[in-house]
């Protein structure tokens, strides 16, 4: 067992780093769908916007100022974009999921196209900030420091989001809205304001995830659909509107993406979608989703 | 004064009309029992009054103020509380969280209303015992009490109740009857949709019957109870 762990430690750690990033990305997607019944297919494009912001600000030379500046700018863009998406989907609130999905898919395509025009076809690299750009020695192997830091950031964000949702009054509003949005309106809460707030916060997490993922994935054409599919798989496996589900789903998918590729290089995609199919067959509402969420 | 005045209200889903010109008024502090067979539009009327189903025509006045087609949160703030069919409590929230959210949701300071979290716990001591439990773990009767408490914390002048006795044991239905009588004493106007005639008779001074999306009969409760032929014709009961 120890021998196996030593041999695969780097893959396990990579899986944790990917899982941490996927959690930050997927929790917003999950809450927007779980609370407001809007499938936001522009979520991957928001991640890509964050990645290109990082490439533009940090690509010229890594410094903490540039990296934090990229995080701040991406966060502001995410907040504004989320507010915009909330306003755009509002007129469709009585229509089917498909109409909303098509609208956000259209937004995603336009954003990706604009990014390609502005930044070109070539992938851009994002260096890690100073101090995190080296590597540390783990059981005789060198491991990038930035990925360890990313695991730490993911853990802190997971705890913060968990405390927010499970322990605060705002969290009670979030859980109540996932459970039964109409009854939240019936006690006098304006659903539209909740929707704008959730959309803005979720979109902010997506753009921030794009910056955080920069030193690993860089910024490139097509990255948006790759991460969107991973995030959707996380949400389906974890259950709509469940923070714990998003965390567990992200950690599982992180390991499948990393350890799965290392151990079963030819089958990694099958394992990914096999896990998805298994969950859909055995527990269609997701590991932590409610039955109501599955019905909606 | 008229607390609720519904005039020629129509509503429906897609192309089917469910409410076909409902006229209904309830005086301030009154209690009206609304009976009728399944599928005649009773629940749709309740949901339309709350703003959760959009009316296609007609008017709804609350204390003379036109609230037709308002969003549900504004209807709630105008003084309407809802105890919906199936209770629809927020299963993952604790009792205390549910009451806190309802008390904050309506935007007025809780102290200004007739009902506060403390006074609701006084009315329903069972909920105080269960305050830390998840709503989804409560018994059916306790969930119904919670649904009523949640509606009370929005400080309603008018309370809409859609089959609160559904699926509950007779002893629990008696408790709900007692609670609703207490609320009447507090001056809350009640619209009680029921299949359980005993509960409606115990709480309401007037009975109305719905059929095919309209109110087809209305009279004082004692008169309705005496007229078995009409009850049988409209409801299919002896």
UniProtKB/TrEMBL annotation, chain A:
It is a multi-pass membrane protein. Its main location: membrane. GO terms for molecular function: transmembrane transporter activity. Pfam families: BPD_transp_2. It is found in: Cell membrane. GO terms for cellular component: plasma membrane. Keywords: Amino-acid transport, Cell membrane, Membrane, Transmembrane, Transmembrane helix, Transport. Coiled coil: none annotated. InterPro entries: ABC_transp_permease, BCAA_transport_permease. The chain crosses the membrane at residues 12-33, 45-64, 70-89, 101-119, 146-165, 196-217, 229-251, 263-282. One of its GO terms (biological process) is amino acid transport. PANTHER family: ABC TRANSPORTER ATP-BINDING PROTEIN, BRANCHED-CHAIN AMINO ACID TRANSPORT SYSTEM PERMEASE PROTEIN LIVH. Belongs to the binding-protein-dependent transport system permease family. LivHM subfamily. This is Amino acid/amide ABC transporter membrane protein 1, HAAT family.
UniProtKB/TrEMBL annotation, chain B:
The keyword Nucleotide-binding applies. The keyword ATP-binding applies. One of its GO terms (biological process) is L-amino acid transport. Keywords: Amino-acid transport, ATP-binding, Nucleotide-binding, Transport. One of its GO terms (molecular function) is branched-chain amino acid transmembrane transporter activity. Coiled coil: none annotated. CDD domains: ABC_TM1139_LivF_branched (cd03224). Residues 4-237 form the ABC transporter domain. PROSITE patterns: ABC_TRANSPORTER_1, ABC_TRANSPORTER_2. Belongs to the ABC transporter superfamily. This is Amino acid/amide ABC transporter ATP-binding protein 2, HAAT family. It comes from Pseudonocardia ammonioxydans. The lineage of its organism: Bacteria, Bacillati, Actinomycetota, Actinomycetes, Pseudonocardiales.
